[in-house]
Amino acid sequence: MGSEEALEIVLYLYEHRDRAWTPDEIRLRLHIDLDATASSSTIVNRRLELRLTDLVERGLVQLYAQTSSYRFASSDPHHAEFVEQLFVNGRDREEALGLIYLRPKPEKERRRRLAL
């Protein structure tokens, strides 16, 4: 996972895995704020859609196309176990959030920073 927001989405969907959630429901439940302007709202909605698409591609979340809703459904038992441990143990969750910010930068970004 590449962001704190993505981790929060996965943990929320894990906690409420008994049903599927629309992006708007996820946004409201996680208090992912929309700005007052329509253009900012579009950006926030698009960012959330991209996060959910990424989580689907990673095999952590399932998309129900008929209802445009999402549900936690890991295709890898090891990932499911890891998410469960993060959910159960808040300390691990804080460590995971720390790792998100400490992860190595992609080579392209490192080169760009060196050029500055």
What does this structure look like?
- By secondary structure, the chain is mainly alpha-helical.
- It has a single domain, classed as Arc Repressor Mutant, subunit A.
- The chain is about 65% helix and about 5% strand.
- It is built from six helices and two strands, in the order αααββααα.
- Strand 1 and strand 2 form a beta hairpin.
- Helix 1 packs across helix 4 and helix 4 packs across helix 5.
- It is globular, with a radius of gyration of 16 Å.
- It starts with a helix and ends with a helix.
Task: Give the SSE map.
Layout: H1 4-15, H2 23-29, H3 38-57, E1 61-64, E2 69-72, H4 77-88, H5 90-102, H6 107-115
Antiparallel strand pairs: 1-2
Helix pairs in contact: 1-4, 4-5
Strand order of the largest sheet: 1-2
- According to CATH, what is the topology? Arc Repressor Mutant, subunit A
Which blocks of ≥5 consecutive residues have pLDDT under 50?
none
CATH class: Mainly Alpha
| CATH architectural label | Orthogonal Bundle
Helix count from the secondary structure assignment: 6
What is the overall silhouette?
Answer: globular
Oligomer: single chain
The count of β-strands is: 2
Short structural description:
This protein has 116 residues and is mainly alpha-helical. The protein has six helices and two strands, in the order H-H-H-E-E-H-H-H.
Provide the descriptors you would attach to this structure in a database record.
two-stranded antiparallel sheet, Arc Repressor Mutant, subunit A, 6 helices, 2 strands, single chain, 116 residues, mainly alpha
